[in-house]
Amino acid sequence: MDIPPLLLEMAFSLKNKSIKAKIAIGDAASWYCAIVIVALVLLCSFKENSSLMTSGGGEVRAQEIRQPCDEIYVVREGETLHTISDKCRDPFIVENNPHIHDPDDVFPGLVIKITPSIINH
User: Fold this and answer.
1) H or E element: which one contains 112?
2) Separation of alpha carbons 96 and 88, rounded Å
3) Residues 50-86: pLDDT tens digits?
4) What is the CA radius of gyration of the chain?
C-alpha cells in the first residue's frame, strides 16, 4: 500500500508546524520565567532597602547597618562592662562569658565575646 506523495508532504508539513509551535511556546515560556525571576530579585532588593529606611526622611543610618563591635572584643583602658554593654548593645556580657567571675574585675586586654541584641538604641 503506497501513500500518495501529497499526503506525505502534508503530514511532514504538519509535523514541522507542530515542532515550530512547540519551539515558540518553549521560547515564550523561557522569557516569562526570566521576567518573573528579574521581578522577584527586584522585589527582594526593594524589600531589603525599605527595611533599612528610617521614618525621618528616608535616610539610612550607618549604625543600623553595621554592628557596633566585633564578635570578639578586647577591653581597653578605662572601660567597664557597663560602658562596653552600652557601646556594643550587649546586655548579657557576663552571661555569655563564663570566664568573667566578677563583673567588677575587668582589666585592659581581657577578651570577651559580644552578642549584640536586636533592639536598637
Assistant:
1) strand 111-113
2) 14
3) 555 544 444 445 444 556 788 899 999 999 989 998 9
4) 33
Report CA torsion sign: 50, 56, 60, 66: negative
More confident residue, 86 or 19: 86
- Amino acid, res. 117: S
Strand, coil or helix: what is 58? coil
How far is it, in rounded angstroms, from Cα 95 to Cα 100? Answer: 9
Amino acid type, 108: P
Distance of CA 31 to the CA centre of its chain: 26
Give the whole-angstrom CA distance, residue 19 versus residue 42: 35
- Three-point CA angle 36, 46, 58, nearest 5°: 160
Confirm if 91 and 121 have CB atoms less than 8 A apart.
Answer: no
